[in-house]
Amino acid sequence: MKDATPFLYTANELFDWLSGRPDFVLLDVRNANDFTNFNVEGPTFFPYINIPYFNFMEDAQGSIDLVPKDQKIRIVCAKEGSAKYVADLLCEHGFTDVGYLQQGIVSWGNALAPKKVSSDDDKYVLYQFVRPGKASCSYLLIFKEEAMVFDPSRNIEVYKGMAKQHGSKIIRSFETHRQADYISGSPQLALEKGCKVRASKLDFTGATFPYEPIADGEICTFAKKGPEVKALHTPGHTMGSTCYLIDNKYLLSGDTVFINTAGRPDLGGRWAEWARELYLTLMLRLRDLPDHIQVLPGHYTSWDEANDTYIFMESLGHLRKHVVAFRMANEKKFAEFIEANMRPQPAVYGEIRKVNIGFLQVSQEEADVMDLGKNECGASNYGKVGVSAETKRVDRRAAA
Asked: Active-site residue 77, yes or no?
């Protein structure tokens, strides 16, 4: 019998499979450290095993024996070549349904999955782009022939492609703050004809690419009216953090508030000062927004935060009742909560901040490496290992 032939699959195909009922085993052939530091996460549980590539080279049969028989196998490696080697090996030994990830784990890190947020009653289209490899969200707002993007990743062709499908072109790129956990696509979009970058000067003064400062309360519009986009200065995660209120209905909150926590205020090295600003933002600056406003965050921690259609969105009223950061008894308790949950930020964050203002230029390959890894932007241990029993105790004490 002729050996089966392995096939290539894309990161977006993998995400689609993981969003349904996965009927395969995901085999990761990276070394144990790389696998532990960053691996594939999806909305559903699935069998996921790690057998390093070098094991297959040193002991092919012993490694093959560890792969579940009579199963569909989908393989992940660092850059594609190792996965193809193992895929060919498995097919030579009787496996009949084997695929390997195109461009390896880097492609998973850069993948963007669009989810339509706006309702059919809205006269515009709003997409949330989930980046499963980074646990981050960016947004695209389309009205007639124009589109606006918010917190874009480097993979700008995806946003441009979606806009083109709707017969529109991106005219604005908004930044909620200077990102530390991923490299922004706004510097690239600043070079696009007819596209302007808008961001707070508190975060972007000295940027080497053209941008226009956004002011608190400023309202941005489309050429043919459409939904208004209102900028709300919400310092705390950074001093320039800005939320964007779309059509008095959707709040793009950046890293100010997430579904289960608030953004950590310690990345700038002045945690006490910024924690106070974040407290005032949550208690005062967002106070007048009605409960029905739908919050669309810049990050998530786990898929438990998504709704049934895998969109990360929750009403402001719900967050006010259930997010610990909103329910601190006073400023001192909030500061204690922040101090108890502080942890070292990844070393690469400082370098990414430099890239995002143009102070540091890196190659595509360097950017791919810098961009890998789940975000750690939440003001709690959620972003690292989930909610530990101790964290829960700290949360309950701080809220008391």
From this structure: yes
Whole-prediction pTM value?
0.91
112-347+376-385 CATH: 3.60.15.10
**CA 116 vs CA 91, 120, 148, 198, 311: distances in Å:** 39, 10, 15, 23, 8
Taking a C-beta distance cutoff of 8 angstroms, is the pair 147, 171 a contact? Answer: yes
Q: Which of 77, 137, 195, 377 is catalytic?
A: 77
What span, in angstroms and rounded, lies between the C-alpha atoms of 134 and 56?
A: 29
Q: Which fold has domain 7-108?
A: Oxidized Rhodanese; domain 1 (3.40.250)
Calculate the alpha carbon distances from 303 to 62, 76, 92, 354 in Å. Answer: 35, 21, 37, 30
What confidence tens digit (pLDDT) does each residue in 123-138 have? Answer: 999 999 999 999 999 9
**Ranges for all domains in the chain classified under CATH 3.40.250.10:** 7-108
pLDDT, tens digit (0-9, with 9 covering 90-100), for 222-258:
999 899 999 999 999 999 999 999 999 999 999 999 9
